[in-house]
Structures are given as structure tokens and as C-alpha cells.
Amino acid sequence: MSEKQINNFSLISRLFGNLFYRSPTDKVLADAFVWLQQKGLSQIWALDTDKES
User: Which of 1, 5, 43, 36 is nearest to 19 (CA)?
Assistant: First the structure.
């Protein structure tokens, strides 16, 4: 049996999909927003744009 690797897009989609159902006052959301403000997402998933964007 081989291990399956999850790509960054799937990981981020699952993360934010799960966070969507949490209460706005949930501490996990506050920590997630702090992580985003610290550019945590760009450290694991480089978002590139093409020249026409």
C-alpha cells in the first residue's frame, strides 16, 4: 500500500472548509487569522500570477 500525499490546494480547501462551520468567537478562528496576517499561507503555498493578471 502506498502513501497518498495531499497537495497544498486540497489542504487549504479542507482547512477553510472546516473553519467555515465554526462560531465566529471560536479561538481557532482567531489563531487562523493571526497566521494569515503573518503571511503563513504564502510560506507554504506561493501564489503566483501570470503577466496578464
Answer: 36
Residue with cell 487549504: 12
Mapping DSSP onto H, E and C, the string for 4-41 reads: CCCCHHHHHHHHHHHHHCCCCCCHHHHHHHHHHHCCHH
The pTM is what?
0.47
What digits encode the pLDDT tens for the residues 8-33?
778 778 878 887 888 888 888 888 88
**Assigned C-alpha cell, 48:** 503566483
Chain mean pLDDT for the chain: 74
